[in-house]
Write a structure and sequence with these properties.
Elements lengths: L11 E5 L5 E3 L9 E7 L2 E10 L5 E9 L2 H16 L11 H12 L6 H19 L9 H13 L4 H20 L26 H11 L5 H10 L3 H5 L6 E2 L4 E4 L2 E4 L5 E4 L8 E4 L2 H21 L20 H15 L9 H12 L4 H8 L4 H7 L5 H15 L2
Parallel strand pairs: 1-3
Antiparallel strand pairs: 1-2, 3-4, 4-5, 6-7, 7-10, 8-9
Helix pairs in contact: 2-3, 6-7, 6-10, 7-11, 11-12, 12-13
Length: 405
């Protein structure tokens, strides 16, 4: 049976009479294929006429709707048009945690890096599922999401992290909307949190010297020295192999990053960009220190015997396995404490300190960018704009000499 389309103006409204029994308004006395009855503040009973049963009795679909009057009208129209199209009227309730698992599977499309997918999973498990995991997709509102952001800010979570969570939730609910698992996407009413651009924190020259002096009392002294000279990320210098060293040309090539899976298993990845694969010329002193480090590693290898795992990494534990990030982070913190330096210095401080020192020394930004493996010089200049006061004074003095004053 062909049924007409329903518009907002055709929606039947029932009104309460003094006796408490619903009565059709004068304006809409005729039966309509849909109607709504007020059941409380922003609460409505919606009914859609579906046809007749074998006995000729009318069949209705009913549901309780929470929202304003106009929103209820919109839902009635949606139900009527879904009925006409032969689509199911009632959304199948799906648990948020189950749908997130599907979303993560979709993310693993072969194009994204394994480390990226792992990061998605950790963020979801740590911050999103504890808040919404037990609810269905349709139970989660924009109010609940805004409350989550507020709670995370109170817990001291960085604005950049909350920004990432917003990106993931947007992607999750967009996919749910695309698959028609939700009526309305709650993220359309949630503004992205402000994400101030983080300023890299670098050690000053005297702080870096204090750190490296304290590192000299540990077996990992050379690793941290090399980190400050290369300006490489921790995952990059931990992924260095002996085959990456050109002894004659005094060059070290960064070809890979060392990553860890959730269970602690390590693996390596290629650089993210073409510029990430780079060769860096080092000093004669660094090469001499590298030679000494290799001698010590050979001694460890002889001592380990058959238990040695020869993967070819430059920085290893006593069995030849590459040093894990958590081990290096622990050693780093003990060195900070021994040097009397703030705990706020992160492990990546060696990279930021290298870049800042080079820029403040007047090294060509392009050379700095190439050492860091940035995709463009603009990224380097936008990231490292910290010029020490002494440099500013020198610039002013040079202008005075040039123009007088």
């Amino acid at each position: 049976m062909e049924l007409p389309e329903v518009s907002a103006g055709e929606v039947m409204e029932e009104i309460e009479t003094p006796t408490g029994k619903p009565e059709k308004s004068e304006k809409h006395k005729a039966r309509r294929p849909g109607g709504k009855t007020k059941r409380g503040p922003d609460k409505w009973l919606l009914r859609i006429f579906r046809g007749y049963d074998a006995a000729g009795k009318r069949i209705y679909y009913s549901e309780v709707f929470h929202g304003g009057s106009k929103e209820a009208d919109d839902r009635l129209i949606e139900l009527r048009n879904r009925l006409k199209a032969g689509e199911p009227l009632k959304l199948s309730p799906k648990l948020f945690k189950d749908f997130v698992a599907e979303w993560l599977e979709d993310c693993d499309d072969g194009e994204k890096r394994e480390a990226t997918i792992d990061h998605y999973g950790r963020m979801v498990e740590t911050y999103i599922l504890p808040a919404f995991g037990k609810f269905t997709l349709t139970d989660i509102t924009d109010v609940a999401i805004k409350r989550l952001y507020k709670d995370l800010r109170k817990r001291g979570l960085a604005a950049s992290t909350i920004g990432q969570i917003h990106v993931y939730l947007t992607a999750i609910f967009n996919l749910a909307e695309e698959r028609e698992l939700i009526r309305k996407n709650p993220m359309r009413k949630v503004d992205a949190p402000a994400r101030p651009k983080p300023k890299p924190v670098a050690m000053k020259g005297d702080e870096a010297r204090r750190f490296l002096e304290a590192a000299g009392a540990t077996p990992h002294s050379f690793m941290f020295t090399l980190a400050f000279h290369l300006g490489a990320r921790p995952c990059e210098y931990l992924g260095l192999k002996w085959s990456d060293v050109d002894w004659e040309q005094r060059r070290i090539t960064i070809r890979r990053s060392l990553k860890l899976r959730k269970g602690g298993e390590w693996y390596t990845t290629d650089p993210k960009t073409e510029k990430g694969l780079r060769s860096i010329t080092v000093t004669k002193t660094i090469i001499e220190s590298l030679t000494e480090h290799r001698r010590r590693q050979l001694e460890m290898k002889l001592k380990a015997g058959a238990t040695w795992s020869d993967h070819g990494f430059i920085f290893t534990d006593k069995t030849g396995e590459p040093l894990k990030h958590y081990t290096v982070r622990y050693v780093y913190k003990t060195i900070l404490e021994a040097a009397g330096l703030p705990k706020t210095f992160q492990l990546k401080v060696s990279r930021h300190s290298c870049a800042t020192a080079l820029i403040n020394s007047g090294v060509n930004p392009k050379a700095v960018s190439e050492r860091l493996g940035h995709a463009s010089v603009k990224i380097t200049l936008d990231t490292y704009t910290v010029i020490e006061e002494a440099m500013q004074r020198e610039a002013s003095e040079q202008l005075e000499r040039a123009f007088g004053g």
